[in-house]
């Protein structure tokens, strides 16, 4: 197993190297001069200002030189400076990624619990009213666009009912805790401010719910059909016929076999959420990586684009590795050599 | 009814409720019959007495990415810098007023300015502002060759004659010079602090200056507030400068600009009272909020102009000068103003209302018959087709896509078919610089409150070359008038020249200016003293909040 993990990690390194080449080339292939984006019309018409801009950001060098310089810096842990924020890209990723991790983790927990329970119950009570309602609800979950749901949820639960707070990680009148880990909830606890922690937790609910809606719907549908398939298997019928208790039947035979595809889905969903979602982050003013990535790509902020791409690749690859390892834990037939 | 059918019916009912809720989203109920009348420009102070201290929160969809005056040229960045720095002079209602410079004289017919500085201006460190700081700031500003450095292009040199005297020599007489100095990009920074953080005014400052990173998140200024925090994508925090030298002391302990990119979210936060001010409301939201007593609206005039332009360097029917006369008559200006929102005007030409030399607005009218006649005389009675490029976004609440569709409809009536080509802003700007757009719809915001900023539309200026392919030498007489207007210091004579320039542009130019929009600001009812500015949006230090 250790050898397998090491092999996978080495493969990730190779993949990341390949990604740097692809991302670098693709971004440079876009036929737009970044100086047009960053300099005003008057400034962009001044060749002296344009030349100074390009020299400042190394854009006057040949492409292969730019790539080599980037790789040399990357090997020293330097991801360059963002054209947009003018901060070190690593600093930006450290600033925005924790907010995305918090949001994605809350969303995946909601997806897993809500989607999983719905799917399990719908499969168990197949054909009953709950099954029909669950299928309709899951269809709504996967169909409703995130940005629309964000606005509706905010309008109803924040503005009209006042049950939940507004956008942002904290209420507008509160000072955030000293940044220790970058995770708002953790930093609130470290600061010993429990009321601030509760405020942050309450702010997390609505955006996490919106982000979870799609994957919860998908998980509900997938887990239902997967469990139904398992429930049709001979060994389940035999165990049931032999008088096995329902609880034992469910937890020892049906769920471990039926939820394997759900684990895959959860992993993929989590990996995608960690990439950030622009719409949810924009509407809920969530300072996450999605907005940063979108603005970087729109502005042709090469260093930021490269940094975000590398981070996404690494995150996705690691999440997939964890999912594969979970297979081995769930299914004794799966052995990694 | 079976369980399945009940579940289906319940699901449909849930869907209907959600859709109705969505339809109701954005509507507000009024709690009383009183309606709020939006004000334009400044709001007078009213009793009860304002709150002193505390935090004033503003929801903003920012363009700024940093606050180094030598690099920041975004309008909202200038709003922050207006509050954290001071300039030699200030512009108010078209007048140039003394500020850090208490007086000035000119020499050599206006080619040299000698400014006498106040002796009581102090930076946020407590140090007195001197002529050395001015000289350093302006020289650094030019030499780092940042985005806004062209503002001081007319300047040959800035010299500190003595601690309270600054001598600025221009390359030639320039009537716009004082207006340029009034813009927050010409902020005076504390030289010692900037140098301490890697700043330099050396000739190679574009390669050797390293102060930008510090100045993007801190201020070395003398304004009523100090920039104490800037977290990109989150917030800007301005903290009161307790030792501010001016008479208009800071009202709040802090002003926080919270980044709220979605304008619907801004509106909700404002209506709930979670923010005191929202700065990016759209025309539709303003219309809706007029009857909402939980929000006070302010209509803020701008100097921005929206125009449609022909490219004269691309051969084809669309490049004929007379075709653009036909376009001028074909457009429905009233309809375009409605689309752009309440308070929008249609300027006569490139000089917007509120700027020296502006001619009366809303004088152009649609005349389809006249437009057709002009096209027929040009041999284009059957019309023609041309691409029209524009950025796929909204600026000042004006949605380019809607405007383009309206123009397509208007021009279609005279036989001109516009192929609409919306483009992502980066692509649009790149295409603009290549001068390859046959026609385009775009927007221009002045860099300083002086008509010289609008002379960029004359042949050889950036928009003239970029959009219209109108290079220097294309109209020597018009260009000569532009030079004259730059050097004419007598306002009356200058206005006459500017009016002639505008007449020439209307009669033979490649632009049709159709809109000068308004910005819409919203505040809670307790907020007063709102002083909008067309160049830097808003004077943050003028805001007060009643008990």
Q: Which descriptors would you attach to this protein?
A:
heterodimer, A: 337 residues, mainly alpha, globular, B: 547 residues, alpha+beta, 8-stranded mixed sheet, 31% helix
Task: Explain the overall architecture.
The complex is a heterodimer of chains A (337) and B (547). Chain A is mostly helical and 337 residues long. Chain A is 75% helix and 0% strand. Chain A is globular. Chain A starts with a helix and ends in a 7-residue tail after the last helix. The mean pLDDT of chain A is 87. Chain B is of the alpha+beta class. Helices cover 31% and strands 23% of the residues of chain B. Chain B is built from 17 helices and 25 strands. In chain B, strands 1-13-21-12-2-11-10-9 form an eight-stranded mixed beta sheet, sandwiched between helices. In chain B, strands 5-6-8-7 form a four-stranded antiparallel beta sheet, with helices on one face. In chain B, strands 19-14-20 form a three-stranded antiparallel beta sheet, sandwiched between helices. Chain B starts with a helix and ends with a strand. The model of chain B is unreliable at 16-37 and 41-47 (pLDDT under 50). The interface between A and B is large, with 63 and 64 residues.
């Amino acid at each position: 197993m250790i050898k397998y993990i090491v092999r996978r990690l080495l493969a990730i390194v190779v993949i990341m190297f390949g990604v740097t080449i692809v991302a670098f080339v693709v971004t440079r292939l876009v036929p737009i001069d970044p100086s047009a984006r960053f300099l005003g019309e008057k400034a962009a018409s001044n060749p002296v200002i344009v030349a100074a801009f390009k020299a400042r950001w190394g854009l006057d060098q040949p492409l292969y030189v730019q790539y080599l310089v980037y790789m040399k810096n990357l090997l020293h842990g330097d991801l360059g400076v963002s054209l947009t924020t003018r901060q070190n890209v690593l600093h930006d990723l450290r600033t925005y990624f924790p907010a995305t991790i918090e949001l994605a983790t809350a969303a995946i927990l909601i997806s897993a619990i809500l989607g999983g329970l719905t799917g399990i119950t719908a499969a168990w009570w197949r054909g009953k009213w709950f099954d029909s309602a669950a299928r309709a609800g899951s269809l709504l979950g996967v169909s409703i666009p995130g940005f629309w749901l964000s606005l509706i949820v905010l309008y109803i639960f924040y503005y009209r009912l006042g049950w939940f707070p507004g956008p942002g990680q904290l209420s507008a009148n509160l000072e955030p805790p000293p940044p220790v880990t970058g995770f708002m909830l953790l930093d609130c606890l470290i600061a010993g401010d429990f009321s601030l922690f509760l405020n942050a937790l309450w702010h997390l609910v609505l955006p996490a719910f919106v982000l979870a809606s799609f994957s919860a719907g998908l998980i509900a549908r997938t887990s239902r059909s997967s469990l139904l398939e398992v429930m049709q298997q001979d060994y389940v019928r035999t165990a049931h016929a032999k008088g096995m208790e329902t609880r034992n039947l469910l937890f020892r035979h049906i769920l471990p076999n039926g939820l394997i595809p759900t684990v895959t889905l959860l992993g993929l969903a989590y990996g995608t959420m960690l990439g950030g979602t622009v719409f949810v982050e924009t509407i809920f003013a969530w300072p996450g990586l999605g907005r940063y990535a979108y603005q970087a790509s729109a502005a042709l902020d090469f260093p930021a684009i490269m940094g975000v791409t590398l981070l996404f690749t690494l995150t996705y690859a690691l999440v997939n590795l964890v999912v594969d390892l979970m297979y081995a834990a769930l299914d004794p037939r799966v052995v990694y050599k | 009814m079976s369980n399945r059918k009940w579940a289906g019916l319940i699901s449909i009912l849930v869907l209907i409720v959600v859709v109705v809720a969505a339809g109701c989203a954005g509507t507000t109920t009024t709690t009383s019959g009183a309606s709020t009348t939006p004000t334009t420009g400044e709001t007078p102070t009213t009793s009860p007495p304002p709150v002193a201290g505390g935090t004033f929160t503003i929801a903003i969809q920012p363009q700024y990415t940093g606050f180094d005056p030598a690099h920041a040229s975004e309008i909202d960045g200038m709003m922050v810098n207006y509050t954290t720095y001071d300039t030699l002079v200030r512009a108010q209602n078209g007048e140039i007023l003394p500020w850090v410079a208490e007086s000035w004289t000119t020499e050599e017919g206006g080619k040299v300015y000698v400014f006498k500085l106040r002796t009581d201006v102090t930076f946020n460190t407590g140090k007195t502002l001197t002529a050395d700081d001015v000289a350093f700031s302006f020289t650094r500003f030019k030499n780092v060759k940042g985005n806004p450095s062209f503002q001081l292009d007319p300047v040959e040199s800035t010299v500190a004659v003595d601690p309270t005297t600054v001598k600025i020599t221009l390359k030639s007489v320039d009537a716009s010079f004082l207006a340029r100095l009034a813009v927050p990009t010409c902020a005076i920074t504390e030289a010692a602090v900037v140098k301490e953080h890697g700043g330099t005014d050396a000739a190679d400052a574009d390669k050797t200056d390293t102060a930008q990173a510090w100045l993007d998140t801190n201020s070395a200024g003398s304004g009523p507030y100090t920039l104490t925090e800037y977290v990109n994508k989150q917030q800007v925090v301005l903290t009161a400068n307790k030792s501010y030298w001016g008479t208009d002391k800071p009202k709040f302990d802090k002003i926080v600009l919270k980044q709220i990119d979605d304008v619907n979210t801004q509106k909700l936060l404002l209506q709930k009272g979670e923010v005191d001010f929202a700065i990016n409301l759209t025309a539709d939201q303003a219309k809706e909020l007029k009857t909402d007593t939980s929000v006070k609206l302010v209509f803020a005039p701008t100097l921005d102009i929206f125009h449609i332009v022909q490219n004269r360097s691309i051969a084809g029917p669309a490049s004929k000068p007379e075709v653009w006369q036909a376009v001028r008559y074909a457009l429905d200006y009233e309809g375009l103003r409605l689309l752009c929102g309440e308070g929008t005007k249609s300027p006569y030409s490139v000089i917007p209302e509120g700027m020296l030399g502006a001619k009366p607005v809303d004088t152009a009218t649609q005349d389809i018959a006249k437009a057709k006649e002009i096209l027929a005389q040009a041999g284009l009675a059957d019309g023609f087709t041309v691409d029209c490029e524009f950025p796929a976004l909204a600026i000042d609440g004006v949605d380019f896509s809607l405007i383009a569709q309206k123009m397509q409809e208007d021009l279609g009536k005279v036989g001109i078919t516009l192929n609409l080509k919306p483009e992502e802003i980066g692509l649009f700007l790149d295409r603009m610089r290549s001068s390859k757009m046959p026609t385009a719809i775009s927007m221009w915001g002045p860099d300083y409150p002086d008509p010289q900023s609008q002379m960029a539309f004359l042949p050889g200026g950036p928009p003239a070359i970029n959009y219209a392919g109108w290079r220097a030498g294309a109209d020597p007489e018009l260009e000569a008038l532009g030079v004259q207007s730059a050097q004419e210091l007598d306002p009356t004579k200058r206005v006459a020249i500017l009016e002639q320039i505008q007449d020439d542009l209307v009669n033979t130019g490649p632009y049709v200016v159709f809109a000068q929009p308004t910005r819409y600001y919203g505040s809670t009812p307790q907020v007063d003293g709102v002083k909008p500015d067309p160049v830097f949006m808003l004077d943050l230090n003028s805001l007060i909040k009643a008990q």
